[in-house]
Structures are given as structure tokens and as C-alpha cells.
Amino acid sequence: MVIGKDLSGSVYKDSSGNIFKIVSDFPEWEENQNNWNETKTALSLLTSENKRYQSILNPTFGSATGYIGGVLAPNGNIYMIPFNASSVSVIDTSTNTISTFGSATGYVGGVLAPNGNIYMIPRSASSVAVIDTSTNTISTFGSATGYHGGVLAPNGNIYMIPTAASSVAVIDTSTNTISTFGSATGYAGGVLAPNGNIYMMPLSASSVAVIDTSTNTISTFGSATGYVGGVLAPNGNIYMIPFNASSVAVIDTSTNTISTFGSATGYFGGVLAPNGNIYMMPSSASSVAVIDTSTNTISTFGSATGYQGGVLAPNGNIYMIPRSASSVAVIGGQSSIPNDIVLSRYLNKF
């Protein structure tokens, strides 16, 4: 439970009375690199206090389609990223209502920057788009296309993942400029690991690619293809989400090795819940799939399809983003989660 705040962030107390303090609140946590150990410990405390995550698919709401991925803003709203929709949609998670603004299309995924803005990643669009969440306005800059998702690195830059582009692109959010490096293509989504490296998920590529953000160099390892998005689990492993692959793949980031388990396909992105499980979003699959990361087993529940990406909100619910579905779907969770957890760069991106 949160028992207060001081200059360095939120202070927690577990059921045994032990005190735990997260590194700091947004946006100050970015300056302190938003340590993964502190994030996962705070997340686990929510479960240890009997706020168990409920695997219940609630009724859908609103009218929305054509979005891929979403980002939680400091104001508590979720911004859905328009791929073939024509405007940004905003989910007010306090009322479960949807509003729209601006003109934008051709983006896949977005990233929250320390300045509070959301950077939308251009897939078929030709420039990066920036949402000012304080005014709900959109601006664009630079020249870039062919990217799928992005990741905020410890150095404060956003790394865009190349799916049709041929190199990694880096956004300097202090100047809103773009640079590129390396040779890579065929990846869909990335994950920041505790070691500070970004792991890119292979969709049409044949191996996992790793960005060393301290040197802006790329290396590859293993054999894997057909994955869209990945999720960092409390055990430090990255779980790759099977889109047209037939099983879940696990990256051991301590050894850079890959293993697989289970049978699953047709999913697009996943979300880590406070119970330590990963919820995979059904794109062509017909139900939500749940990875128990303590046993590496998969179960399914509910009836849903046409979703690509999901977002964990401060109210404890997971919001599924409608790509071909016609409304937002919600996986019901616990009562509340502090913002400094759900805004973490490890959790809040696509």
C-alpha cells in the first residue's frame, strides 16, 4: 500500500510492515533511470496485499476501430494510436468513455517521454507525431517511416523499431530530431531489459536483435520469427508474443538464449499484470491468453478478437486496443495502481 510520498517518490508498506520506496514519481523517475528492481517490487507488493488480479473480461464500451497500441499519460488517460483510424482516441479510464481529437493516421505504437508528451511511431506515416497531453494537440517533425513501436532508453532517447525501415531510428526528445544507425529490418516492438539494452522482437526477421544503447550498436542471437511485441517479466526474462509463430518464446537476458513453450498463435502484444502474469492480446485469436510466468504455462479465457496492444491503467484494469474490433475491451483488475508504477518505461509502451 502507498503510505505517503517524500522528495524521492512514493513510499510503500507491505503486509508485514516492511517499508519500500520506489525511485521517484513521473517524470523524475526518468532522471533516475526508473530502476526495474524497484518497479517490479512495487508491482508485486500490490499482489502480496491480496489485491489479486481478476481474469474477467468485462463488457466492451465505446465505438472505436483502426488503432494499434496505446499509451498511458500522466493525466490517467489512455491515448490510442491511429493506424488506419484518422484521429487519436482518448480513453478516460475514470468513466470508460472515448473522445477523439486531431488528424493523424499511419502510426503503430507510441512512447511516453519525460516531458509528458507521447511520441507516435510512424509505420506508413512519413514523420513522427507528438501528442501534447496537456492540450490534446498534435505536431509532427522529421522524416521517418516503416517503424513498429518504440522504447524509451535510459539515456532519455526513444528508439524506434524497424519493421520495413532498414535501420534503427533514434528520437532525441530534447530537440525533436531523428538520427539512424545500424542495419536491421523485420522487427515489431521492443523491450527495455534490466541491463539497459533494448531487445527487438522478430516478426519477419529470423533472430532477436539487441540494441546497446550506450554505443548505439546492434547484435543478434538465436533463431526466432513470427513475434509481435514482448513483455519483461518479474523474473527478468522477456516473453515474445506469437503473432504467426506457434508458441511463446522466452529470452533469458542473462545469457541471450531463447526457449519456447506452449501452443499459441494470433496474438499481438501483451501486458504484465500485478499478479506477475502476462496477458496476450487476441488479434486473430478468439480469446485472451494468460502466461503464468512462474510455471511457463498458458491458459485462455473470454471471447475477444481483433485487438492489437493493451495498456495497464491506474484503476487496475487492462484496456485492449481495437484494431479490427469495434469497441474497447477491458480485463478487470484490482482497485488501483499508483501512477509511478503504471507509467514505468518498462510497462507503458508499445
UniProtKB/TrEMBL annotation:
Q: What is this protein called?
A: SMP-30/Gluconolactonase/LRE-like region domain-containing protein
Lineage: superkingdom: Bacteria
